[in-house]
Write a structure and sequence with these properties.
GO terms for molecular function: ATP binding. By secondary structure, the chain is of the alpha+beta class. A hairpin with a 5-residue loop joins strand 5 and strand 6 (about 140).
Length: about 675
């Protein structure tokens, strides 16, 4: 008997041999058998009298391990015969291993590994045995070749014993499913091969529900481009899938796996990703490392998960199609016709999935009559349309959906970002309506002659400060200069006497229609920007008088001694229907934006017509609308216009505006 010594330390070999994935460890020995041209391989679990696992046997009918190969391979690490071969000798099947490390994977399972192999040499059969002890991985014992017993057939039997633990999980349905998922692509590629795991034949054709292959693609990563990525999803029948992503080289042989982390309610599946890129990751023993920080691998993994997630959202919608058609035929489905835009398309997709979940798990819903179903589904639609985040609570409280399905649905809502999309859609719809109402107020003859800047125009502007810019975060409607300065003092954390007054240069009290402010990025954390708006009715033509009035307000604020040396910036706006030629000359100066009257280090003064203001806002709104593919129907606009007009009229009939009552009553 010869004793072979690997040219590596035991500690290093133990690190290479260790794995937390025990099914993968067994798979390594099956791959070795397949690489030896075996067309029949079995994994057998021997049990003791108490039913516990005693040993593990892997049998195959391959070409066996010859004396010369044993002496070469078991004395070398990283110098396997497979390095020189991409196909097996007899059947020309793709070869799995290349590093010669797979045989050491027994280390995590058993204290010893014993190979008994029968091989053919010079027209006859010979037999030998090989043994490796887990405590001495760098040494292996190889027996002399002898003639096998009569009736012996070519092949290898590997016995792993005694086991390091009970490993009862290896005989579970979950382990069997995971093992089957690893070898499913190989069986599909080579259907003549038979692989048995714990007396169960690996038969993907009997357990595949559906398979889908994506178009090959190139992924641009931070450090390289991963070319020709092949991606395949196999949907399994009940409990046949492992919900993992299996990574393989271009040959299609699985090298490693990670959890899929893809939301797919009601599906059992496996994902197979093939690329030469994964060979390098596998060679570094990193395919099993969760949270691998390699930026290129992270980008590829992100692409795979996103692509598969999109696939299963579509599949879930397809799967619920029959149910949805039944609800449509019964007249209880709360949508009509085709989706009007991208938002409603996504909304319906989520609604259909939620409805399918409800129908699958709620007996009460199944038994309910159509009138109750119609009410229930109508409420569910309203929840998804206006408050998607509440849907999970509804599914729990009303339909008693299982916890695992609640979690999957919550994740689904996050993946589709439906809440953000619907919020954006509602925001845009409100802004479209506000601009239409404002246009009607300032341009339509029947309103243009009667509209008031206070109580009507200022109410609309107060609730739609985005017309001037997106960043303003607080508003005070029609307040006196003194109150403005107190509010600015609060923002700047300055102490200002309550009795301190702010007046125009002529000593009179000044009133500004709207006061807005914003915090902007600046080296000084106390820096603030403010905006004061003076609104004029549409028929008024702004001239020198109005400009003088605006400058009085500007000078009154900038002259306050409290704020000298503070980091503030002011925007003053005067808005009216038109301006005369003198004003036009002043606000259309060379190298300045149209409308800019004064441009100083700490303030700007603007004069805008209603038409210019509305046109600028519509331009910004149209850009966002196009990007989100959101449309607002004429019916929806009509309903919201009626609501908005009603609110303006109610506000206009009141003496003041909500939280600023006391401000208006004081007059300053």
């Amino acid at each position: 008997m010869a004793e072979l010594t690997l040219k590596a330390k035991h500690d290093h070999l133990a690190k290479v041999a260790s794995t937390r994935d025990y099914v993968k460890a067994l798979a390594e020995f099956v791959w070795n058998a397949l690489d030896a041209d075996a067309d029949a391989v079995s994994v057998e679990f021997s049990r003791n009298s108490l039913g516990g696992l005693h040993s593990i046997l892997i049998r195959d009918n391959g070409t066996g391990i010859s004396k010369s190969r044993a002496e070469h391979d078991f004395e070398s690490l990283g110098d396997s015969w497979k390095l020189q071969k991409s196909r097996t000798a007899l059947n020309s099947r793709v070869v799995h291993g290349k590093e010669g490390q797979g045989r050491l994977k027994f280390y995590s399972l058993a204290r010893k590994a014993n190979w008994t192999s029968v091989y053919e040499e010079e027209g006859g059969l010979l037999s030998l045995s090989i043994a490796i002890d887990a405590d001495n991985l760098h040494k292996s014992s190889v027996s002399e070749s002898t003639k096998p017993k009569n009736g012996a057939a070519r092949g290898t039997v590997l016995e792993l014993a005694p086991l390091k633990d009970t490993f009862d999980w290896l005989t579970s349905e979950e382990a069997r499913s995971e093992f089957g998922a690893i070898f499913a692509p190989y069986i599909l590629q080579y259907p003549s091969v038979s692989i048995v795991y714990d007396r169960h034949l690996v038969d993907p054709n009997a357990t595949i529900e559906r398979a889908h292959e994506f178009e090959r693609t190139t992924i641009v990563c931070p450090g390289r481009s991963v070319k020709d990525l092949a991606l395949r999803v196999i949907e399994w029948k009940s409990r046949a899938g492992s919900r993992k992503i299996y990574f393989g080289s271009e040959t299609g042989v699985v090298l490693g796996s990670q959890a899929a982390n893809v939301t797919a309610p009601g599906f059992d599946f496996s994902v197979y990703a093939y690329s030469p890129f994964f060979q390098g990751i596998a060679d570094a023993n990193l395919l099993e490392v969760d949270g691998l920080t390699d930026p290129d691998f992270a980008r590829v993994l992100e692409y795979i998960r996103d692509t598969v997630g999109d696939y299963f959202r579509t599949r879930q919608a397809e799967k619920s199609g029959e149910l949805i058609q039944e609800l449509i035929d019964a007249g209880v489905y709360p949508y009509e016709g085709d989706p009007r835009d991208e938002v409603e398309r996504r909304e319906r997709q989520v609604f259909d999935i939620a409805t399918h979940a409800v129908s699958s798990y709620s007996r009460d819903f199944k038994k309910a009559d159509n009138s109750l179903k119609k009410i229930t589904l109508g409420l569910l639609r309203e929840a998804i349309s206006h408050n998607p985040e509440s849907v999970s609570r509804i599914l729990r409280a009303v339909f008693n959906l299982p916890k695992v399905r609640q979690d999957e649905f919550s994740s689904l809502l996050q993946k589709t970002e439906l809440g953000h999309i619907i919020s954006a859609s509602s925001l845009i719809a409100d802004r479209v309506v506000a601009l239409k109402v404002l246009s009607e107020m300032v341009f339509e003859p029947k309103h243009r002659h009667t509209i008031k800047e206070r109580g009507e125009l200022d109410v609309l502007i107060r609730d739609n400060t985005w017309i001037f810019g997106e960043s303003f975060h607080f508003t005070m409607a029609e307040v006196g200069l003194t109150k403005i300065m107190h509010r600015v003092s609060q923002e700047l954390s300055l102490l200002r006497a309550k009795s301190a007054k702010a007046r125009k240069p002529d000593g009179k009290v000044g009133r500004i229609d709207s006061f807005m402010g914003r915090v902007v990025p600046h080296p000084d954390r106390q820096h603030r920007e403010f905006m004061l708006v003076e609104l004029k009715r549409p028929l008024l033509v702004v001239g020198r008088k109005e400009l003088d009035q605006l400058e009085d307000y500007v000078n009154a604020i900038l002259a306050q001694p409290d704020f000298i040396g503070t980091s503030t910036f002011w925007n003053f706006y005067l808005v009216s229907g038109e301006y005369d030629p003198v004003v036009k000359e002043r606000i259309t100066q060379k190298d300045r934006p149209v409308g800019l009257y004064l441009d100083k280090p700490n303030h700007k003064v603007w004069v805008k017509s209603w038409a210019e203001l509305i046109r600028d806002a519509e331009s910004r709104l149209q850009f966002v609308q196009e990007k989100l593919q959101i449309e607002v129907t004429a019916e929806e606009i009509g309903e919201r216009i009626a609501q908005l007009k009603s609110s303006i009229l109610r506000a206009g009939s009141e003496p003041s505006f909500g939280s600023v009552d006391s401000i208006n009553e004081q007059g300053e």
